[in-house]
């Protein structure tokens, strides 16, 4: 066979290999769909509860960290059958959590935290049990005074979901660890105006206020 024919044959063979490889890649199976959420039951149905901060809560935007040592929110487990979901989480409304006794990592700066709107928390049974707190649009605002006047607004463009976890116990705990929260920051010198998200850390202990002898429990 001439060199020209040999080269042509090799070229066609290479093209064939590329075509097969391309077809194989194109025909690869689609990614498996995400598994469906399992069932969730929160008990006691209809009982009111109180979430009280344990330790401190921190909200960090850019290089500025606001730390609060007092925070409280209340809510109610849905009445039956709303306290059960065969294929997903169970959601409970919350009062806007209060944040007081707050300090700033910036010397000479005093923060004030205000909250508003319709907050909620949803629980999904699993290992671990997941918790999602929903912050309404503009539902949390941090305003600082002193050497720097800044305003940090959480969930500025729409409701934001803050991911956490739940542990059953006596009392049970609701924990947020390095949870991301979208924010906008306005203000002058010293304000982290380039920040678009903040990091939230907090642990809450939850008590049953309808019957203190019982515990709010999340299960299948």
Description:
It is a single chain. Helices cover 11% and strands 51% of the residues. By secondary structure, the protein is mainly beta. The strands form 2 sheets. Strands 2, 3, 4, 6, 7, 8, 9, 10, 11, 12, 13, 14 and 15 form a 13-stranded antiparallel beta sheet that branches. The protein is elongated, with a radius of gyration of 26 Å. It starts with a helix and ends with a strand. Residues 1-34 have low confidence and may be disordered.
Distance between the termini: 73 Å
Q: Over the alpha carbons, how many angstroms does the gyration radius reach?
A: 26 Å
Structural class of the secondary structure composition? mainly beta
Run of helices and strands? HEEEEEEEEEEEEEEEE
Tell how many strands the DSSP assignment holds.
16
Uncertain residue ranges: 1-34
Mean pLDDT over the full residue set: 87
- Percent strand: over 45%
Number of helices: 1
Shape summary: elongated
Profile the largest sheet.
13 strands, antiparallel
Q: Percentage of helical residues?
A: 10-25%
Q: Care to give the gist of this entry?
A:
The protein has one helix and 16 strands. The chain has 220 residues and is mostly beta strands.
């Amino acid at each position: 066979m001439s060199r020209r024919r040999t080269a042509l044959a090799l070229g066609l063979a290479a093209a064939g290999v590329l075509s097969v490889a391309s077809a194989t890649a194109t025909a690869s199976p689609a990614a498996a769909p995400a598994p469906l959420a399992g069932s969730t039951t929160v008990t006691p149905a209809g009982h009111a509860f109180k979430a009280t901060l344990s330790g401190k809560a921190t909200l960090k935007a850019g290089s500025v960290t606001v730390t609060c040592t007092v925070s409280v929110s209340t809510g109610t487990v849905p009445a039956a059958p709303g306290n059960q979901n065969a294929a997903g989480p169970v959601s409970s409304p919350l009062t806007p959590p209060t944040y007081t006794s707050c300090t700033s990592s910036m010397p000479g700066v005093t923060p004030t935290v205000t909250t508003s709107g319709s907050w909620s928390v949803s629980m999904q049974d699993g290992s671990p049990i997941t918790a999602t707190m929903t912050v309404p649009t503009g539902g949390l605002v941090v305003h600082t005074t002193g050497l720097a006047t800044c305003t940090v607004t959480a969930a500025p463009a729409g409701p934001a979901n803050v991911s956490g976890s739940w542990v059953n116990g006596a009392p049970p705990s609701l924990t947020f660890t390095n949870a991301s929260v979208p924010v906008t920051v306005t203000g002058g010198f010293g304000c982290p105006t380039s920040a678009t998200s903040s990091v939230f850390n907090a642990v809450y202990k939850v008590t049953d206020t309808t019957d203190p002898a019982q515990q709010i429990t999340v299960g299948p």
